[in-house]
Amino acid sequence: MEVSLSSTSCIPLSSKLKHKHGLFHSQIPIHTASTKTRRTKPLSVVNASRQTLSSNWLVSPHDFSASTASPWLPRFEELDATNMLLRQRIIFLGSQVDDMTADFIISQLLFLDAEDSKKDIKLFINSPGGSVTAGMGIYDAMKLCKADVSTVCLGLAASMGAFILASGTKGKRYCMPNSRVMIHQPLGTAGGKATEMSIRIREMAYHKIKINKILSRITGKPEEQIELDTDRDNFMNPWEAKEYGLVDGVIDDGKPGLVAPIGDSSHTKT
């Protein structure tokens, strides 16, 4: 129960008032000559707010094996999907790649790697791409991880999304059978003074060369071929992406409505 204290209105509760209303009565009106009637929050509301204090925080898996829940931990059903996936070492990139998204993905990668560097991290991707610098931040974080980072494309992995997909650990990069992959050169606009435009153009050229070098190393193709193939939007189906060297397999067992477990090479279509 919340009680407001001030120098002008501080009224102690008498034993008679306590007896009449009870200490845990849902609402106790307090009247003073100098203030308007004020209703305090029900204890149930206050307690509920305290119980959900950590509902957005990841907790230890051992907490669910305890016979009684800790007073500050959320109930099982209160955990959101992101935290539940994180418990399974799954990260989902399902939006445009920008600085905020990159910070979120990077923090999850570093957390899972610090938690257990011997277990794989699974990064699911459905992204149209976005900022080159933000995507490079995710790429560097993936390479910083000691744990293998398995990447899986479902839906679309385009532009920086495709780059991140291809940057997963070799042998652990996959596409779902109905997904699409698209690569192209960096896009951008330049305006303003001639000097400012030349600076932006040089920066775009730098990123283009950098991405082509990395894709060349990933796919085993010469940089000249990468530059030619990314001159325009280059869409691929999962098997074309595999042949190009962007992924290692397609999760498909050939039966309608069924997909094989991740990493089951016996179900990978050739």
Automatic annotation (TrEMBL):
Pfam families: CLP_protease. GO terms for cellular component: chloroplast thylakoid; chloroplastic endopeptidase Clp complex. SUPFAM superfamilies: ClpP/crotonase. One of its GO terms (biological process) is proteolysis. GO terms for molecular function: ATP-dependent peptidase activity; serine-type endopeptidase activity. It is an enzyme of class 3 (hydrolase). Keywords: Hydrolase, Protease, Serine protease. The active site is at 159, 184. InterPro entries: ClpP, ClpP/crotonase-like_dom_sf, ClpP/TepA, ClpP_His_AS, ClpP_Ser_AS. PANTHER family: ATP-DEPENDENT CLP PROTEASE PROTEOLYTIC SUBUNIT (PTHR10381), ATP-DEPENDENT CLP PROTEASE PROTEOLYTIC SUBUNIT 3, CHLOROPLASTIC (PTHR10381:SF50). Belongs to the peptidase S14 family. This is ATP-dependent Clp protease proteolytic subunit.
